[in-house]
Write a structure and sequence with these properties.
mainly beta, 7 helices, six-stranded mixed β-sheet, single chain, about 775 residues, globular
């Protein structure tokens, strides 16, 4: 099935391999990506001993230009992806869960470089949308289980997402595109590639996107530059380098509750810069009623909210997420003997970030009854990972290791507005000169990991045996701490996490696989999540008894591939122990400490099916279905102030885990006309641990149509039109934006974008 639009990235730069080996040395993997213009768009893990699928570059180029690779993978079984924007890039809203495991329980790599858990308040990495432009991604690989042993990750309890950049080719050329669409969104991308006869090759690219929010007042924009190069140093040695710079600024949408949606509608939002006077009026009323705790300065505002407001938290003045990232890596790959390969790569990542919120809970020194509350991020990570792979008889051995030192500072500061008539500050700019620092905590984390794997080839039967182990040591200390935020030392060690897998080929395209993996997750080193997000007293009470989360994953299935039909069917059982729930104790904007609770074990049972069919006449079809039954196995017992309370969570479904996911699409591709229409349906999702509140199921339809003209260049000129949410469905996208509570309606939902349409013109030279 050829689904696509000619790439923003030229077809000569596509790298879309289907790796047959179970474990491949990660530092060399991107370099191994062979040019494959005729590769499958979706690869359903042929030859693997675990559940794994891959998507090629073409899967991204059929989507709206600039779409996140996370949105592309939502078609795969057991993947639940949500975002409040059409592109899947708005980080406050972006969530991906797999088999009931949340985003911070998954592992993420780019060319082997660890991206951390990619959460909004990321303490140990960065989001994929800030690490590389989607046009430069060659392969996206999803492991629904606990993922590859060789992945540089200490949090992949429930799966691994690995992204691989396109491999530079020895050609001179350029690829450009320009897009415009709904909410006055425009985007440009350009890449220049250069190669020499001696094998040196590389490319550099730049992208810029700017647009209004689809509701309310505000903008979301990003600038990114990527460069990659490969330099042969003789016949057996390659040097490769990658560097990326990203500058992202996004004004936020208002978090909603079910009650707010019923009363105010899906299009309700924050005030934004154009409604500063209204925001001050609401803050004055909140102060006059005593609700916000701010000393009243304008009694004339009264104590009655204007309709439709009923509380100050219905809308805030403004909010934003600001991130600047520099990521650089340098790697060396050396052939050793006839079958061996040694690879080593060092990397450096620096991040400056602020999450801003216009809060009515603290006044500015100027007398304005609100101020800017920030959570600030300063990451400086450096690390190295290396591996050796080689064949000894019918054994393919892989040995590797990873070390990282992460210096992370997280701070909570407040900045004043200038006056009641002029804010004097823009939430799209980094704030300077705070009037109050509530806390500033430094985290020094050292991570050491190793892994060993052996693929045993016995003809039709392949056996994979291996294990990994790691030590993660965190020391947290206060730079400023006015409210007893937790500090101290916390260490996790698990030197033996085994994996065993089998793959048997019956012939005629039919194979079976089965596997078992055990994984332990390291604690999050952050003041806003994990053990350190508690009070000092709470941390001291648990630090000697707390246990890290761990999981045992069992999976088995069948795959069938005739070249026309490519299908898979799998089942899994997961035993998840010592699950830690981070429970907010107030509204997110207040920024109070969390409560951390061990809720015992969780059991997950599920079935996953996918089929990709090449139909006659240029048509193709894809469908996937997954059933997931993930439930808490224990009640939660809370003791506070000498009083013990039992929360009956036993048997309840894990939050943000739909039982049913169904995806289907039809595609067409001729020499000139191409297109695709796809539907994405999921059942209801709970956003309380006691399952008393949920959002209903929904079906979304996206569509693409395009036309290409071949004028004899390296690639044709192409016009592509994308409609996201074609039938304008109003629905809740993200749940848990402000965390999950035990029960009751919470202001923790984000509305999904309505229908949006984008037009893109692409060309290559």
């Amino acid at each position: 099935m050829r689904i696509v639009a000619v790439l923003l990235a030229s077809t000569s730069l596509i790298a879309a391999p289907a790796f047959a080996a179970e474990e491949v040395a990660p530092a060399a993997e991107a370099a191994m990506a062979a040019d494959s213009a005729n590769a499958e768009i979706v690869v359903l893990g042929s030859g693997q001993t675990r559940q794994v699928q891959e998507l090629s570059t073409q899967e991204l180029t059929i989507l709206a230009s600039g779409t996140s690779p996370l949105k592309a993978i939502e078609k795969l079984p057991s993947v639940n992806f949500q975002s409040a924007d059409a592109f899947g890039n708005y980080e406050w809203s972006t969530r991906v869960t797999i088999r009931g495991f949340s985003q911070n329980q998954l592992g993420f790599n780019l060319d082997g470089i660890p991206l951390g858990d990619m959460s909004y308040g990321n303490a140990n990495g960065l989001h994929i949308s800030r690490a590389i432009s989607p046009e430069n991604i060659g392969v996206t690989r999803v492991s629904q289980g606990s993922g590859s042993i060789a992945a540089q990750s200490t949090n992949n309890l429930g799966g691994t997402l690995e992204f691989f950049s396109v491999d530079p080719k020895d050609v001179l050329g350029a690829d450009v595109s320009a897009s415009y669409g709904s909410a006055e969104t425009y985007r440009g991308f350009a890449r220049v590639a250069l190669g020499t006869a001696e094998g040196a090759r590389g490319y550099a690219s730049v992208q810029y996107q700017d647009g209004k929010k689809w509701k309310g007042d505000g903008k979301q924009r990003t600038f990114m530059a990527n460069a990659k190069a490969v330099l042969p140093l003789g016949e057996t040695v390659d040097l490769d380098g990658y560097i990326s710079y990203s500058d992202r600024a996004e004004q936020d949408y208002q978090d909603l509750s079910l009650e707010m949606i019923d009363r105010l509608g899906y299009d309700w939002d924050n005030f934004g810069p154009s409604r500063y006077a209204e925001a001050i009026n609401i803050a004055d009323i909140a102060a006059n009623t005593g609700y916000s705790g701010v000393t009243p300065t304008n009694p004339a505002a009264g104590t009655t909210y204007p309709s439709p407001f009923v509380i100050a938290d219905d809308a805030y003045y403004d909010a934003s997420g600001l991130r600047k990232d520099t990521l650089a890596a340098l790697g060396l790959t050396i052939q050793t003997g006839d079958t061996g390969k040694f690879a080593i790569k060092g990397y450096y990542h620096e991040n400056d970030g602020q999450g801003t919120w216009g809060t009515p809970y603290l006044a500015s020194p100027s007398g304005v009854p609100m101020s800017i509350r920030t959570t600030e991020y300063d990451i400086k990570r450096k690390g190295v990972f290396a591996s050796w792979t080689g064949e000894l008889g019918f054994n393919k051995l892989l040995v590797g290791g990873w070390y990282e030192k992460n210096d992370f500072i997280q701070s909570r500061r407040f900045y004043g507005y200038e006056s009641r008539t002029n804010p004097g500050r823009d939430h799209l700019d980094f704030q300077r000169n705070p009037f109050f620092t509530q806390w500033s905590i430094a985290f020094e984390t050292d991570t050491l990991q190793y892994y060993v794997s052996d693929d045993i080839d016995l003809g039709d039967l392949k056996v994979n045996l291996g294990w990994k182990g790691y030590s993660v040591d965190t020391n947290a200390f206060a730079l400023v701490n006015t409210n007893s935020r937790a500090t101290g030392d916390l260490k996790v060690e698990d030197w033996f996490q085994p994996h065993v897998g089998l793959n048997y080929k019956f012939g005629n395209g039919l194979e079976a696989f089965a596997g078992f993996t055990q994984v332990t997750r390291a604690y999050q080193a952050s003041t806003t999540s994990g053990p350190f997000s508690s009070t000092q007293a709470g941390f001291d009470a648990i630090k000697n008894t707390i246990k890290p989360e761990s999981s045992d994953t069992y999976e088995a299935g069948l795959r069938y591939n005739t070249g026309i039909v490519n299908a898979s069917l799998a089942g899994y059982y997961v035993d998840f122990r010592d699950r830690l729930l981070v429970i907010p104790t107030s509204l997110g904007i207040v920024g109070a400490t969390n409560a951390l609770q061990n809720v015992g074990s969780v059991r997950a049972l599920g079935i996953e099916a996918a089929v990709d069919v090449k139909l006659p006449g240029g048509f193709g079809a894809f469908a996937s279905y997954s059933y997931n039954d993930t439930t808490y196995r224990d009640d939660v017992v809370i003791t506070a102030g000498g009083v013990t309370t039992i929360r009956p969570t036993k048997g309840k479904t894990v939050v943000d885990t739909p039982k049913h996911l169904l995806r289907g699409e039809l595609s067409y591709d001729s020499d000139t006309v191409f297109g695709r229409v796809g539907v994405n349906w999921m059942s209801k999702r709970y956003f309380t641990y006691l399952n008393d509140k949920s959002v209903p199921g929904r079906a979304l339809v996206d569509a693409t149509i395009g036309y290409r003209v071949d004028i004899g260049q390296r690639q044709p000129i192409e016009l592509q039109i994308n409609a996201v949410n074609l039938f304008d469905k109003r629905y809740v996208a993200t749940i848990g934006s402000n965390g999950f509570g035990f029960s009751g309606d919470n202001q923790t939902l984000l509305a999904g974008a309505p229908r949006q349409v984008f037009v893109t013109l692409k060309a290559g030279f």
